[in-house]
TrEMBL record:
GO biological process terms, semicolon-separated: nucleotide metabolic process
Official protein name in the record: Nucleoside triphosphate pyrophosphatase
GO cellular component terms, semicolon-separated: cytoplasm
Family named by the database record: Belongs to the Maf family.
Keywords tagged on the record: Cytoplasm, Hydrolase, Nucleotide metabolism
Length: 202
């Protein structure tokens, strides 16, 4: 096993894996997320991650491969918050979030194919995110940058939104879009060593 296929269009997920030395390529699933329903946010992100990975698997024909699907949502008061559909929706989200905390959940669905054997592992990581008490002008300025349009929960910690997150409890990678420690543990369950996926072997 010497490569990972990421079934996600997220630049942040790709950058996280590349920064960790992983030899990774991207195949976007094209899954329509709008019709997927689940009883809670944790179940929803796990199912969306599964759908993405399973959709990409038939597109990856050659050789042994580890394939990862991910999906992230912010849970606020038991309600999943995805990417805002408009600037107004992003502003409303921030007015609900400011001065409070929410749980960022990221589902991971790993498929490892070696020869005729295919194994699957699904896990969900959760991290509590604490938001600064932004005033209306700060919200308007941040939403006006367009950054919240493209991310679950309408915020980032690795971009312009970083100063508005006061702390996190849990793996900060989860907030960016995938948990590296969890992915390592999932790979171990199916007999893949993390360092086997490094771009440059030490």
């Amino acid at each position: 096993m010497d490569r990972l296929v990421l079934a996600s269009a997220s630049p942040a997920r790709l950058q996280t894996l590349q920064s960790a030395g992983v030899a990774v390529s991207v195949v976007v699933s094209g899954v329509d997320e709008s019709g997927v329903d689940a009883p809670d946010t944790a179940t929803l992100v796990a199912e969306l991650a599964r759908l993405k990975a399973e959709a990409v698997l038939p597109l990856v024909q050659d050789g042994d491969v580890a394939l990862l699907g991910c999906d992230s949502l912010l849970d606020l008061d038991g309600t999943p918050q995805g990417k805002p559909a408009s600037r107004q929706e992003a502003s409303e989200a921030w007015r609900r979030m400011r001065g409070r905390s929410g749980t960022l959940l990221t589902g991971h669905h790993l498929i490892v194919r070696r020869g005729s054997l295919t194994e699957r592992v699904t896990r969900t990581a959760s991290t509590t995110v604490f938001f600064a008490d932004l005033d209306d002008d700060e919200i308007d300025a941040y939403v006006g940058t367009g950054e919240p349009d493209h991310v679950a929960g309408a915020f980032t910690i690795d971009g312009l939104g970083g100063p508005f997150v006061t702390r996190v409890e849990g793996d900060p990678h989860t907030v960016v879009g995938l948990s590296l420690p969890l992915l390592r543990a999932m790979l171990r369950l199916v007999g893949v060593r993390w360092y086997d996926l490094w771009e440059a072997r030490v």
